[in-house]
Amino acid sequence: MAEKQKGFPLPSSLKVVPGTEAAQAAYPYYMQFHDGDDDRFWFYNSMHFPEPMHHFDMVTAEAAYCALGSFNTRVHVLPTTKGIDHRIINGRVFIGGVPVTDPAEIEARMAEFQQRAFYYYEHWEDLYAQWKDKMKALIAEAQALPKPELPELEPIETTHTGKGVASNHALIDTYRKQLEGYFRMWHHHFEFLLLGYGAYLTFFDFCKRAFPEISDQAISRMVAGMEAEIFRPDEELKRLARRAVELGVDDRFHEGMVIEDVLASLDQLGGKGREWLDELEQSRNPWFNVNVGDGFYHYHRSWNDDLSMPFAALPGYIEKIRAGTNIERPTEKLVEEREQLVADYRELLDTEEDKATYDQLITLAHRVFPYVEGHKFYCEHWYTNLFFNKIREFGALLAEHGFWEKEEDVFHLTHYELESAIVDLMLSWSSGSPPIGPGHWPAIVAERKAAITAWAEHTVPPALGMVPDVIDDPAIVMLWGITRESLDAWLSDGESNENELKGFAACTGVVEGTARVIKSVKEIDRIEEGDILVCQVTNPTWSPLFQKISAAVSDIGGLLRHQASAARRYGRPAGVGAGAPTPKGRGTAREARGGGV
Amino acid sequence: MTTAIAWFSEVGIADRPTVGGKGGSLGELTSLGESAGAEVPPGFVVTTHAFELFLAALEERAPVRARVEALDPSDLAAANTLSAELRARVIEEAMPREVEQAILDAHARLCGDAAIPVAVRSSATTEDAEDASFAGLQDTFLWVLDAASTVARVRECWGSLYSAESMTYRLKHGLPEEGVAMAVVVQQMVDARCAGVMFTRSPTTGDKSVITIEGAWGLGSAVVSGEVTPDRWVLGKITGEISVRDISDKHARQIPAEGGGIVEVDLPAEMRQAPCLTDEDLQKLRDIGRKIERHYGRPQDIEWAVGQDGRIFLLQSRPETVWSARDAAPVAKPEADPLKHVMSIFGGRR
């Protein structure tokens, strides 16, 4: 059948939403689509950036791609792929891989890769221990940065100590250090990630060839770690629920409670009430340093900053404890189950050779996986929360000086623009004249606010440009779960039943329930018991929600991704990579099938 | 086995020469059944010894084997004439008293006064005889109501040895008449709510980590004969996760007929698209399948039924043959340096 080759729209054919041209132009020039981009393949990174990007938040894209590409291209020297280019239009981040296709270059890079990457694998445990120390030091540095403040007059200590540097200098110093730390954090993030995923995927690939119909879920269960930091916040919530029951203060927690009132009443109660509040403090530091998103948006606040997410889960857990249900993770039992699975699949292999290979691969996968599961807590959550909160402090200071109305408005500036506003304020404090910013920024902030709203109403294609014959870029397959097959599925989307969502099973099962389309984390409280969650992407800090919902479906996501693993932990059917369900869904559909859909 | 009758509980695979493949397998399954969590409907085998006693009685009156040996396998008309003659003798001529009485006694012990219906099935003694290519040897009579009919059906099974196809097949393949014998299985019938087959590997990819279950409402004959498109499930053998649920439109089911035998009836609308097994049934079957496979040390092709009361019964288990013949090539050889394996991911297209 000679069918016309299908493709996605060209980047040059995408139109900026009318009225948002200035907001679009304000993104750095290197993020704008330009000549030559039509010849490449791009896809919308709705996994990491599912919502239109505030101008400041684009720092996450550039910091992450600076680091990801460096490790792929020049540190580990991946043979067949370099880094990731990114472009933004209408607030949406499109990315494109840079494959290496020249056989001689691949050959040369192969030799480099083996001496570099293999060194990491060989010294994995030591390097990872060192990594944790580096991350903790980086976090401590960020915590030590002062709150940006401008006194009316310099404190007398500056005179007495002969410091010789005035307070306005601390603003640019703190800002640049914080920004530098954020870029550095992303380097640490990618130091191990691709190697970890690669080792895991090698085992995954072997299993798929030995057992063509094995589910991704079964493979990940064989590898899953039990102690990863990212699961800990949810465990802390269970602990707090149990302590509430033990202390007899559990009657204070119920659906729809006002958190401030609950905290005040516990404090007033004294004794047992205060004891529980002490327990809460213990859990909060550091375990509530997780945000309710992926850490890629400033408004994905941490549990510490907004207790509503953790508290929303408490009544459910308390209810289960009262009913005598054991909600603790039976770690030993889980380890035993994992070992049994590994042994049972091994037994099915036909040859001794395969068994020997299998042993080699599962051993490597188990060694690397603690990093794969554990890094997010330090990077995307703990450090990122500190980072955005520091920017928020600048937002508040500048708001105080009339640059804009609210501290959150600061996120409508790019990080370059913010530095200019800080310098403006420094100059003003220095000269004694009023700053220029208050006459400059409010109109711009208003314009960009309107643009974000307009872009949120506007959908973009899942991909742009011509479809490559194969996608064998290991980074794209590993991080985004995008393969030639998934692109074909996206392309044929128009031909399928428009009331049906198709994707890949991350955890199998069949349930029926109200499909609740959640377009942003702000809508989390709309979720009701037994709902099927339909969203662009979820992450581990939504875990406490999985006790409430009956299934989940998301637009995009590799099988290594969070929703997949959270669903598996909670035994909820989940589909990922459904293309673009969220804009289509209207919140009334019923029935979700994971597996064989 | 030098008795005319052998009970399932007394035989195993090793007894194939006297009880046939089906009989031996049912014996093996009976011993295994309890620990596997499923029962085999009780029954007995009319052994090859019984057949030989009967054949000896026939030979005393007029030759049988010599007549077959003298047949020209290319002369179809002669084969048809001889077949009609010999089959008539097998159906009509007197059976040695000891053989007939043994069958009647065993039937009485199996069914008591309750008039429990039975299935009567031929059970061939040679490996290739289980092949559909050995035409005419796959006789199965369902829902046989009494002892006299049972004896008559046993005769029909024996008679199938003298079908034109069967005789000419033996002659063309040089199989000596001396060794020709047949056992017959007599087994209590299950009034199945639903029934079907289970493969302990994937029929499409050969994957040994999944179990495929097919089933439809009513007796399993509807599935085995292909009369009804069955529901189909694929389960992780080890994990139990259900990755495929293919619920078909089952237009009919086969049920016992009033005067014996079976009849096909239309299904009420609400049952047509309803899955014939619950998830709990599927998990029980998976567990049973794993245990049987472990017992035999290789993937199996299993026939099962669920009674009206929900009990699971095993009707047959055979080694899977298609994919087993292809096993061997390793997926990936072990490496002296295990790290080399990651090049399959990082090294580009294989």
Task: Note the main attributes of this structure.
A: 597 residues, alpha/beta, Glucose Oxidase, domain 1, 10 strands, 9% strand, globular, disordered C terminus, B: 350 residues, alpha+beta, D-amino Acid Aminotransferase, Chain A, domain 1, 35% helix
Describe this structure in words.
The complex is a heterodimer of chains A (597) and B (350). Among the domains of chain A are: 100 residues, no CATH class; 95 residues, 3-Layer(bba) Sandwich (Glucose Oxidase, domain 1). Chain A contains 19 helices and ten strands. Chain A is α/β, with parallel strands linked by helices. In chain A, 47% of the residues are buried. In chain A, helix 6 crosses helix 7 and helix 8 runs antiparallel to helix 10. In chain A, strand 8, helix 18 and strand 9 form a beta-alpha-beta unit. In chain A, the strands form two sheets. Chain A has a six-stranded mixed β-sheet. Chain A has a four-stranded antiparallel β-sheet with strand order 2-3-1-4. Chain B is an alpha+beta fold. Chain B has two domains: 184 residues, ATP-grasp fold, A domain (Dna Ligase, domain 1, 2-Layer Sandwich), CATH 3.30.1490; 128 residues, 2-Layer Sandwich (D-amino Acid Aminotransferase, Chain A, domain 1). Chain B has eleven helices and 13 strands. In chain B, a hairpin with a 4-residue loop joins strand 12 and strand 13. In chain B, helix 1 packs across helix 10, helix 4 packs antiparallel against helix 6 and helix 5 packs across helix 6. At the A-B interface, helix 3, helix 6, helix 7, helix 12 and helix 13 of A face strand 9 and helix 11 of B.
What is the compact description of this entry?
With 597 residues, chain A is α/β, with parallel strands linked by helices. Chain A has helices at residues 21-25, 58-75, 103-122, 124-144, 156-160, 167-210, 216-223, 232-247, 259-269, 271-287, 308-322, 331-348, 352-400, 415-431, 437-456, 474-480, 484-491, 562-570, 581-584, and strands spanning 42-44, 81-89, 92-99, 463-464, 504-507, 509-518, 532-535, 551-554, 574-576, 590-594. Among the domains of chain A are: 229-328, no CATH class; 500-594, Glucose Oxidase, domain 1, CATH 3.50.30.
